[in-house]
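Lesson 9: reading folded outputs for more than one chain in a single document. The general rule is that every protein is listed as its sequence immediately followed by its structure tokens, and records are never interleaved. Here is the first one.
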Amino acid sequence: MTDPRRLYVLDTNVLMHDPTALFRFKEHDVFIPMVVLEELDRGKKGVSEVARNVRQVSRFMDELLAGADPASLRDGLPLPDVANRDPEHTEPHGRLFFQTEKLCEEMPLTLPGNTPDNNILCTCLALVKRHAERHVILVSKDINLRIKASVVGLHSEDYSNDQVLDDVDLLYSGVTELPPDFWERHEKQLDSWQEEGRTFYRVSGDDLDDWYPNQFVYMEGDNPIEARVVELGPGSAVIELIDDFRQKKHSVWGINARNREQNMALNLLMDPELDFVTLLGAAGTGKTLLSLAAGLAQVLDRNLYREIIMTRVTVPVGEDIGFLPGTEEEKMTPWMGALMDNLEVLTQTDPEAGGWGQDAAADLVRNRIRIHSLNFMRGRTFLNKYIIIDEAQNLTAKQMKTLITRAGPGTKVICLGNIAQIDTPYLTETSSGLTYVVDRFKQWPHSGHITLQRGERSRLADFASKAL
């Protein structure tokens, strides 16, 4: 008789990535090989996110083992269902098994060497023989281990519980094109008015159910329109015509939008009512330049925020250059090349001002910008700050939560990134922290998102991004 409950064998990297993975397999059972516990023990020291996750896993296991009879470990420990929010629902949904005896008697010839990965595979093969009635599955975020598992005839899967979406193409883009007959279909229930120099339209219909707060809508043709959803109700919505930052008179710190998406991004960045903005786009789409320009305009011109704080994940593209001397800001300087390049553009003053005037303007701007490392963000609270998180695609969902919850009253957080350029191991486009916040914040009326499409760096860079 076949047992419908599966037996999931967890690799070390799964627990290092998500400490709650123990509780994510519903009614199925979880098996922890002894070699995994050994690897967790070696990874518990330090202040890194991985070390914190390892210590949290150890605490979870300790809580489950508390009061348990050692003789009952063979029968497994009941696992609570943490995904169920009902406090009255306490029925266990699976059991946790630890390796209590030697299972791998002899390493198969196809697995040379006594490595931890090979020990895990050997343990899985022994479990398959011992539990022929059950479906044994190895769960690992290590692609090479999954390949080796397939070679020796084991079924393996990636850990997908942290995936926000099944496909990255389903990610919210922040903008939608209206059909050509949109106004004709809604003209009977259309109201328009002006208020404080702004133009608003109220439209009704069943086709508005897929709209989100602060989503942009546009229509091309003879009567083009670009608007933002400012209010949503049952079967109705209020849209507001947005400012056109492509016009010279509407420049932001000397910067004008060069395309539709950049114009929409500046509308989000310049709105003080929005506390959280995410900008996605490939290299050269203007994410950093637009964010800095909007930040300088609101810090120095409008005094909405006290200063700009910029941070990013320090993941090297090539070989690590080792430890860097100096203070926190000096250590972060090599990682902030994008900041310096964009500041050079933004601090270009009138040539007639001379060298002294240009240096004075540059010093004024730099004095209102602070560079911080992500390593020292935990426990801090930022008041009335304009925070830019660059390269946010390399953050996990937990790291993103840690950063965003640092925001105090009057603070605005901007997340920039390109989910096609993830440099962190075990993160994918669908499990990145940036994807996570874009999806989770799209319903919140005080946030906005836009995906920038066109590169505006240079014709060389634009062609290279397409052809290479």
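And here is the second record, again sequence then tokens.
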Amino acid sequence: MKIDIELLRNLCTVHGPSGDEEPAKEFILKYIRENKSSWVTAPTVYHGDDFQNCIILEFGNPKTAIFAHIDTIGFTTRYENQLVPIGGPQIEDGYRLVGRDSLGEIECTLQKDEGNRLYHNFGRPIDRGTPLAFKCNFIESKDEITSCYLDNRLGVYNALKVAETLTDGVIVFSTWEEHGGGSVPFLIKYMYEKWRIKKALISDITWVTDGVLPGMGVAISIRDRNIPRKLFTDRIIQLAAESGIDFQLEVEGNGSSDGREIQQSPYPIDWCFIGAPEDNVHSPNETVHKKDIVSMIKMYVYLMKNL
């Protein structure tokens, strides 16, 4: 399977910190409009005011949903050149940040003082409340891809690739995940009441750890800070073993995803986090092995056909 580098690079470049996902939403909608006619099943697309910056794709007779959040970490401008983090970005002096305010395009450098207070060094005041994001430096090597925002634009990329062959299912592009969530509750309500869907896969990116290594396949998470129902994760692991696709099992006590809001919802929906592992998490230099990207897509295609 060949990776569509141009699509992945463009996804990593498009602006979309939590709360300011409009450009990312419009990019994804444009891609869907231009490509859905070549997919095995042309989906019904749900978006607009009732969905805020979220998108839902309906294929055939859905039984299982894929959730992929489109927002990223970043920073919000405050007063006197101060910055406030969006989500949990890594902080290093010299990281390049980009954005736009009422006076035009912005490119500046992240700085911190001895008290770990954050600043920018732009040559003029930036409008208060302007979201800034890491500047994208997308690098492809023989075995790896390095870029900001592979978390979670790679999860979005995975969902769009799965959409090409999907006959039955729902794909949900959610928002706010990096900064505590908030969109999943109304998305779940809509999804459950319309289709009675009770199974969900979380298309997101996890960490390289002592037990989850790059190049060894997509990670299937048995638990993170939250614990999905074992009956469901056991079924997924059984199917993954039958598929012949490379995968790893992840067990963590920290970290979270859209799965947290699914689990805390009043709806009986099982969920499982399945994603490629990355190094340099939440930095401008997130790195993912190409083999893990390919196995992630293949695993989702297999599971959506067999769950």
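What the second record shows: Residues 21 and 71 are 6 Å apart (CA to CA).
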